[in-house]
Amino acid sequence: MSTRPSGPSSIAVDAMGSDLGPSEMVAGAALALKTLDVLAPIIMVGDEARLGPLLAEAGLGNHPQISVRHASEVIEMHDKPLLALKRKRDSSMVRAIELVKSGEASVVVSCGNTGSLMAGGTLRLRTLDGIERPALAMVVPNKTDHFILVDVGANSTAKPAHLVHNAILGSHYANVSLGITRPRVGLLSIGTEEGKGNELVTETHKLLKKLGNLIDYRGPIEGFHVFDNSVDVIVTDGFTGNVLLKTSESLFKLLSGYLREELMQSTIRKFGAFLSKGAFITMKEQLSPDNYGGAPLLGLKGNVLKAHGSSNRTAIMHAIRIAHEMIAADFNQHIITDIKTANDLIAQPVA
User: Fold this and answer.
1) Disulfide: which of 41, 51, 178, 333 matches 10 by Cβ 3.0-4.6 Å?
2) Which pLDDT belongs to residue 134?
3) pTM, two decimal places
C-alpha cells in the first residue's frame, strides 16, 4: 500500500494526531472519497500496523486514491512544540510536513498539536517569497453566512505590511473556502472614521488603500460590524484575532447554555422548545465549525490545514475537501503573484 504513487497534487493526512484516534481519521478519509466527486490522492501518514486494518475495515485497503507512509512516533497534545519536533523526527506530523517539503504532496491536514504544526510548517516549509510571517485563518459564522478572520494567532506582533499580506491571504482563502469571487475586506478597528485606531491600524489602512483594485478593500470596521455581513474577510493581528475568536466562542456557549436552562423552566417553555426543535437543529448545523474543517496556516511554501483536535469524521472530510480545493485552485501561485504586486505598490511613495 505504501508503494503506490503519489504526487504534488496529493493530500498528506496526519492520521495519528487526533484526539479521537486514527480510526476517526480513516473514517473521515472514507467519507471524503464517498461524498466528493473529484478528490486528490490521499496519503495517510502514521503507524502502518494500525492503519492497515482500519483502512481494510473501511473498504479502503486497495483503494487507488489511498496510500500509507509509515511513521513510528506521535506528537501528543501535551508535548512542547519545538522539543517534540526535535525529538520526534519520525512522528506522523513531521513526516506529513516533509511530504509537502519534498514535493510529494501539496497540503498537510492534521488534528494534532497546534504549536508543533505551526512551528513545523513554518520552519520546514518557510514562507512564500515576499511574505515575512504566516497567518492563521478561521471561517466564522455571521448574520447570514460566514466570513474569514485572519490572523487568529500565528503572529501576535504584526507590522502594517504583515496585515496587508493578511488581507491578500484572507481574500484568496475566502475564494477557495467560501466560493466568493471578489471578497469584501475590512480592517478591524475601534471605529470606521479615518485616523481612528492605534498606529498599526492607521498605517495599515493607508497601505491597503494603495492596493487599488488588487483587493476589494472596504475600509476600517468596528466590533458592531463583525457579525453583520458587512465584509467577507476581517483583517487583524494575531493577538486581537485570537482574543476576538475565543471571546465569541465563549459568548456563544454562554448564550446557548442560558437559553437551554430558560427553556426548561416550565412545561409551556418545554413545549415551545419542542416545537422549535427544527429551527435549533438548523441553527446548530449553520454554526457548526465541522463544515469548514479547520484553520489553514497561510503564506507558506506548501499548504498546512489545522483541524480541531477533537474533529469528527465530518469535520475531517471537510478539511480534506478544502485541501483538495486549495490544490485545484493553484492556491499559492496566485498568492505569490498578488503579494509581489502588493509589495511593489506599498513601496511606492505617497504622491
Assistant:
1) 41
2) 93
3) 0.83
